[in-house]
């Protein structure tokens, strides 16, 4: 009977280690995604500038509004960035 308890405790320890490894891998994956998003937000071209009239976060589905407002401001076009800001092109 004592061997059965020893084996079950080894299995439990092994499962805890496996769960911890999965959590660490998920944490690293999340950090990698966040790093990519932040790098994308910081790599805006020098000829782009923030829209002066667009208010709020610029989501993918509001790209047409961003583009239209930038054209009304006198710029070539506009797009939403990874940082959820409306950037006008051709400043």
UniProtKB/TrEMBL annotation:
One GO CC term, this protein: extracellular region
Domain Knottins-like stretches: 46-91
Keyword hit for Secreted: yes
Domain of life of the organism encoding this protein: Eukaryota
Family annotation (InterPro entries): Knottins, Scorpion_toxin-like_sf
GO biological process: defense response to fungus
SUPFAM superfamilies assigned: Scorpion toxin-like
The keyword Amino-acid biosynthesis belongs to this UniProt entry's keyword annotation: no
Location of the protein in the cell: Secreted
SMART domains: Knot1
Keywords for the protein's UniProt record, in alphabetical order: Disulfide bond, Secreted
Name the record gives this protein: Drosomycin-3
């Amino acid at each position: 009977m004592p061997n059965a308890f020893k084996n079950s405790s080894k299995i439990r320890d092994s499962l805890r280690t496996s769960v911890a490894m999965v959590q660490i891998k998920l944490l690293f994956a999340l950090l990698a995604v966040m790093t990519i998003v932040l790098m994308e937000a910081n790599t805006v071209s020098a000829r782009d500038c923030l829209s002066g009239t667009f208010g709020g976060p610029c989501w993918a589905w509001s790209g047409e509004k961003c583009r239209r407002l930038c054209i009304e401001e006198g710029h070539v076009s506009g797009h939403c960035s990874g940082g959820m800001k409306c950037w006008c092109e051709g400043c």
